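Sequence design from tokenized structure. All designs in this work follow the same two-part layout: the structure record, then the generated sequence. An example of the structure record is given first.
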């Protein structure tokens, strides 16, 4: 009796340990914490492009981070310009039409400002092949006015009927921006 109880107890323990965590969030974006470094000082699975004439520097920061080893830091020199950071399509998991998705990310800024054309820095969430005419967008100037600490921002959008993929981008215009812990999850 005692031997069978021990065997049962050990088997139950192994089952609990090997079972996936209940309530674990499935992240639809890979390397959202910028822990994997790719080529040319760009996070693995991401693209970084700048408009002609924009002077900027991008690096992995080990001192200023929300969690993990790194955050991704982008400095755009005056008078500003436009730098776009976005995940490569293979870094985004396929989604389900009609479902609502939430993008959450941590951001810290210093001297954030409009560029010389008054373009605001934004975070956007959209879908492919059908796109929203008016993009679900966070105006970072509006949300981060006077704030210089790590801030969590979220954006929600419901996928159109023929949507298959997410489109995510951060358009940055002037100042220093740290990004970390980007999570995209299905909420309903």
């Amino acid at each position: 009796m005692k031997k069978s109880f021990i065997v049962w107890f050990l088997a139950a323990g192994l089952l609990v340990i090997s079972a996936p965590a209940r309530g674990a969030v499935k992240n639809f974006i890979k390397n959202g914490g910028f822990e994997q470094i790719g080529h040319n000082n760009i996070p693995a699975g991401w693209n970084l492009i700048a408009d002609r004439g924009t002077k900027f520097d991008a690096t992995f920061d080990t001192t200023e981070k929300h969690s993990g080893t790194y955050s991704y830091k982008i400095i755009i020199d005056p008078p500003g310009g436009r730098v776009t950071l976005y995940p490569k399509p293979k870094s985004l998991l396929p989604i389900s039409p009609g479902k609502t998705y939430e993008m959450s990310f941590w951001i810290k800024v210093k001297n954030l400002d409009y560029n010389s054309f008054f373009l605001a820095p934004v975070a956007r969430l959209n879908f492919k092949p059908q796109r929203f005419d008016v993009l679900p967008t966070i105006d970072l100037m509006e949300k981060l006015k006077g704030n210089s600490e790590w801030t969590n921002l979220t954006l929600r959008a419901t996928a159109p009927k023929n949507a298959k993929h997410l489109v995510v981008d951060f358009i940055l215009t002037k100042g220093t921006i740290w990004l970390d812990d980007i999570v995209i999850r299905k909420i309903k």
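Helices lie at 2-18, 140-143. We note this feature because it recurs in several other targets discussed in the main text.
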